[in-house]
Amino acid sequence: MGTTTPPRTLAEALRARGDESLAGLLRARPDLLSPVPNDITQLATRAGTRASVVRALEHLDRFALQTAEALAVAPDPAPYDTLLALLTGDGQEDGAGRDGAGASITAALPGALATLREQALVWGEDARLHLVRTARELLSPSPQHPSPTGLGPTVAEATAGMSPGRLQEILAAAGLPPTHDPVSAVGALAELFTDRTRMAELLDTAPVEALSVLDRLVWGPPYGEVTPNPAPPVQWLRDRGLLLPVSTRTVVLPREAALHLRAGRAHRLPEPVPPALVAMAERDPQAVDRAAAGQGFMALSTVEELLKLWDDGGPAILRAGGLSVRELKRTATSLDVTEPVAAFWIELAYAAGLLASDGETDERYAPTPASDEWLDLAAQDRWTHLATAWLAATRTAGLIGGQDAKGRALSALGPDLDRSPAPEVRRRVLALFATLPPGTAPDPQTLLARLRWERPLRGTAPGGASGQGEATDLRSRIALWTVNEAELLGVTGRGALSSQARALLDDGPAEAASLLAPLIPEPLDHVLLQADLTAVAPGPLERPLAGMLSVLADVESKGGATVYRFTPGSVRRALDAGQAAADLHSFLATHSRTPVPQPLSYLIDDVARRHGHLRIGAASAYVRCDDEAVLNEILADKRSAALRLRRLAPTVLAAQTDPASLLDGLREMGYAPAAESAEGDVLITRAGARRTPPRTPPVPVPEGPPVPDATLLAAAVRAVRAGDSAARAVQRDDQDSPAAAAGSLPRTTPADTLATVQAAAMTGSAVWIGYVNADGAASQRVIAPVKVEGGFVTGYDHTADEVRTYPLHRITGVAELADEQTN
Fold first, then answer.
1. Which among 32, 254, 349, 816 is least surrounded, fewest beta carbons within 10 Å?
2. Residue 617 contacts residue 677 (beta carbons within 8 Å)
3. How many Å apart are CA 527 and CA 562, to the nearest integer?
């Protein structure tokens, strides 16, 4: 590691790195740790696999990616100056009226190269920069997948297989002397295209139409179709090698000629600097915090209303999973929001663990036991719970209503809604919000431009293959959904990031809750009753009051103040829940700041007087009433025909329907029946009685392996270093102790193995062993034996960097290490 010899391979370059640099590589590319590589050579091999390189390229920003693309079309290896020239150009005019932003590129290029080196995509010194072979293959041009730079193959690649006679014809048409072999002919043509003076003289003789053809191909794609008898301008270009044949119908502009026309640039527009966020509006930060807090409180109210809506058992689950379109519309109508917004609240409650399926035979959605615990929390803690669940969720509500890759509709709470980039995009969007001064709302378009610069390849595999069968700009779609959802949830207010959201991102839920608490209004313990059978709640209500009022009255309108309306049905609902008329009068008198209106008292007394006069039980169903006249009235009513009633006794009617349908039918006729048990007791229907069994929130689908922590990184680096030392250890070539050949396991007899490890234990030296585990996997290890007894050898394993015990019968052989390896 102390040598100054330039590395010849990626493995040698990695071996020369320090521990901190290796840890940086494993942190940037955690897929290399699954499992931990045995040594540096295996780490380098894994870092060059196609899947790993594609994942690494997807995490590059635009300029780092442009640097890699320039290296892909440069000679291998490429000097630093050649790479810089491909990005800045040669200082000549390229026809676009730009100077190439050379100063900013020169300043940014060392950082981009450092990123590529850290991620093991580039290795070597500045004089000999190597792009790893897999990345070069992914980013190099081909007819199927043109280069991202728009450049075609080199003259040598495009003329491979061309007849010597045809090469001599091209040289003659271009004004070059004939050569004796094809290699010299190709070299002469490439030299002409890279000579600015002679190339300019050649193009000065070109027809105007031929220059127009070159203009269409110069920035890519460089391929074009020709007819068997091409037009004279095209023929002029073909004769001089400016268009070379790829097939009988396809020609290509060679790379050297294209670079001349581009003034040496590999890219039309290098982007060394990320796009700046543009402020759309600047507002008072305190006003932003208040607006966000108000919206956050509305979010809590909406989720509470959703839980209450599904208290008695929510909608049924589709056979394929999820919520039907009709149930989503019904929920949206009840919440007084649009269907996409309703889908967002449903998914958020599900992600927070407040809703789940009940697991019954007739499976339905219902609140979970955790929802009751959530409702008991303070408002600020409820909000941080929702916001934290939203940040971490991979389920993406914005997809609902669309179709999956197979053309199937995506439904709320259904499968296939997980998108692993969603949490990272949400946090990045909010982090960009946080870079602006407090109270500043960014322009969404500049926000999207910045995200595309940071991850230009996300959703599209390098080489032109599209990813996931979805729109390639999934990150932009998630970002736009994030902006809208953040406003709904109260993370942002009036388009700007709130202080409580900044605290949530930086310091955690506790700090965010402390900032939010003073902005949330204190819950009230009273309402204002009015003579038109309504009650006005001038603010949020205490939970017991709100719960009782939601049973006794129906919500008529929401906003800064909530209006409740009392109806016969709502009063009957309270009586069904076990309340007596006296209880209702007492409740209203206690919690109203205004006198209880007489019409409301009359309404309660009237419904209570008739409530339970009729009794319905299960025979299959019957109606019982002590007043025969009431039963006669029911039988005479034509609306009761569907219930198929018949008299069993003067005070009992039987029905050929179930009790629930009979209850609903008589209530629609204007009666107030009550259900009774088999013992004749009135059944009380309590709100919120249905809960699912304990459920855990859905686990987010991770995007690749998790980023390892510092402890794991340090242990992994030690293990790789130890394994590399073991793999490169030199065995002593001793005639009396036959060592294994290079790359194979040591082979010794059991007696020799036992004697060697016992001697090593007494002298404290290290030995080389071959070991086969219980699964039959063979490996080579360097151990320092400490104890040998009972058929086992215990020692410090330098390969694993820990003390281990090995059965002697699984050791294939043992060999001593060379002297320079044992010190």
1. 816
2. yes
3. 10
Cα 538 → chain centroid: 41
* Contacts with 507 (C-beta within 8 Å, 6 or more apart), sequence order: none
Helix (H, G, I), strand (E, B) or coil at 624: strand
Per-residue exposure over 163-200, b if at least 16 CB sit within 10 Å of its own CB, e if not: eeeebeebbeebebeebeebeebbebbbebbbeeeebe
d(C-alpha 169, C-alpha 175), whole Å = 10
What mean pLDDT comes out for the span 603-629? 82
Cβ proximity of 51 and 43 under 8 Å: no
Residue among 326, 328, 324 at smallest CA distance from 340: 328
- Say how far apart CA 119 and CA 43 lie, in whole Å: 12
Report the distance separating Cα 167 and Cα 183, nearest Å. Answer: 10
Cis peptide before 77 (omega within 30 of 0): yes
Structure tokens at 332: 């949206």
Do the beta carbons of residue 332 and residue 339 sit within 8 Å? yes
CB 574 within 8 A of CB 603: no
For residue 428, give both structure tokens. Answer: 């990045």
pLDDT: is 523 or 370 the higher one? Answer: 370
Here the tokens at position 392 are 């971490």
Lowest mean pLDDT among 124-133, 496-505, 793-802: 793-802
For 691, other C-beta atoms within 10 Å of its C-beta total 18
What is residue 436's three-state secondary structure?
Answer: coil
Q: In what order do the strands lie in the sheet with 778-789?
A: 802-807, 792-797, 778-789, 767-772, 811-816
Report the distance separating Cα 68 and Cα 58, nearest Å: 12
CB 240 within 8 A of CB 170: yes
Please check whether residue 52 is in contact with residue 29, taking contact to mean a CB–CB distance below 8 angstroms. yes
* Helix, strand or coil, per DSSP, at residue 503: helix
Q: Comparing C-alpha atoms, which of 396, 708, 719, 377 is closest to residue 520?
A: 377
Q: Give CA–CA dist 104/291, Å, rounded.
A: 41
Asked whether the predicted pLDDT for residue 753 surpasses 70, the reply is yes
pLDDT digits (tens, 9 = 90+) for 795-823: 887 766 678 889 998 998 888 765 444 43
Dist CA 404 CA 415 (whole Å): 10
**Angle subtended at Cα 500 by Cα 287 and Cα 302, rounded to the nearest 5 degrees:** 85
Bridge partners, residue 530, by sequence: 534
H or E segment to which residue 565 belongs: strand 562-565
Residue 557's identity, in one-letter code, is: S
Cα 742 to Cα 107, 361, 412, 531, 733: the distances in Å are: 47, 64, 60, 98, 11
Q: How confident is the model at residue 739 (pLDDT cuts 50, 70, 90)?
A: very low
Q: Is the pLDDT of residue 706 over 60?
A: yes
**Residue pointed to by tokens 């690749």:** 704
DSSP 103-115: HHHHHHHHHHHHH
Q: How far apart are CA 268 and CA 220, in angstroms?
A: 10
- Angstrom distance (rounded) from CA 550 to CA 564: 8
- Decide if 560 contacts 542 (C-beta within 8 A): no
